[in-house]
Amino acid sequence: MTKINTICCIGAGYVGGPTMAVIAQKCPEIKVVVVDINAERIAAWQTDDLPIYEPGLLEVVKEARGRNLFFSTDIDAAIEEAQMIFMSVNTPTKTYGLGKGRAADLKFVELSARRIAEVSKTDKIVVEKSTLPVRTAESIKTILSEYKNGVKFQVLSNPEFLAEGTAVNDLHYPDRVLIGGDQTPGGLEAIEALTDIYAHWVPREKIIQTRLWSSELSKLTANAFLAQRISSINSISALCEVTGADVDEVAYAIGTDSRIGPKFLKASVGFGGSCFQKDILNLVYLSEYFGLPEVAAYWDQVIIMNDYQKKRFARNIIHSLFNTVSGKKIALLGWAFKKDTNDTRESAAIYVADDLLSDLAEVSVYDPQVPASAMYADLNYLQTRPAAENKEMLKVHSDAYEACKDAHAIAIITEWDEFKTLDWQKIFDNMKKPAFLFDGRNILDHKQLKNMGFKIKAIGKGED
Ligand code: UDX
Ligand code: ADP
Q1: CB atoms within 10 A of CB 28
Q2: Which atom of ligand 1 has the smallest separation from the CA of 346?
Q3: Catalytic annotation present for 27
Q4: Tell me: the pLDDT tens digits for 264-322?
């Protein structure tokens, strides 16, 4: 059986970086080279100021970097040397042409596959690590087989289940590792080679081997089910607000049923992140493509509910502030799509801020990890108004107290722990009155804040 001693990973992002760092940490005899076209990103991986914020990651990187973990922009050399190549490039939703807004844009995957095909002189196992639509492996295989030169490729699907903010722990102690491959002797041998790598630290019974397409579809299905739980509880949050029920009590009550379980039932301003929406859109696109409109509509509703939740939150702010926020300062605490990450992809903050700006609010933001440049880039991407206007109307602060000073309202968007321990009395004293606080994450002690004088509106909490 092939014993792997050299790995290359194309793409040094949120998936490729942490995954390879852990593989290198746990398999000191394997040389792992992570490559990227983005030279700035590669340079940052070589410093202690890593390009992504992920608790515990620096320690892992430091342990392996220079020993058997390397970061490089020399993509061809790394491909040529490796026996196994992970593809961890980004696969955003298409913003143009056929399948716009739904299908995954596979141009980065295709480019990487072509590069592998052109450069390879020895047999290789190619591992799909990015989130990809079902049957992408087939396209990769087709591209690779065109070039041949006697070189043999095996394509595996090994979807990533790590969640940002807890990536290192998720990689160290995964619920399962999924490896899909062709059920041919060559395919099975490749599956075993990858299984051997994970078996360095993951119990074998947690390593699930499947056919290629089952693995690809399982990744989309897992994310669709998780996102569906959030949309389900968020739909109930709207009902709670009008009936006077409390969504956290409802979530606790239903979560104690072991068939339902307590996780992923936290009502919020809406889910974000690079995977949930993209993967569901992929499922919708696939279902439509295969002539299953009812299946497509079923999953589409999870996205519709999420969009509704974000809109509802912004609308609630405007309504509560006497139907106008024009010229009023609204402070957003948090911009990242969840705590403990600097990733902002599809964050609810972007949409809430955009709606408030469209109602001519002055928005001020504080996030402990997200730089101002990322916030402006997110807003400009929506193209609702000229970039210059975004710059003028949205102010970014490096201090929560400054962001909230003289504000008419504060909205908690991200559940950063540090927001719980702010001096809320000081914040209240420096705000315009009545001082509104919209808790999009239900992380604060509402009773205490109410006693201070705040007018609290929280997700899924009816009026007392
Ligand atoms: C997700 C999957 O969890 C992971 O397995 C997959 O590999 C990639 O996609 P990630 O997007 O990093 O991971 O974060 P996750 O923790 O799943 O949160 C996604 C969004 O849902 C966040 O915006 C989060 O705030 C929100 N969320 C999560 C809720 O609103 N309520 C919850 O109960 C849980
Ligand atoms: P993910 O969350 O899926 O890891 P990221 O955007 O964080 O997504 O990372 C993907 C990385 O892949 C980016 O750093 C990007 O520069 C890199 N990338 C995209 N296309 C290529 C390519 N053809 N060759 C090398 N790297 C690439």
Answers
A1: 13
A2: 23
A3: no
A4: 999 999 999 989 999 999 999 999 999 999 999 999 999 999 999 999 999 999 999 99
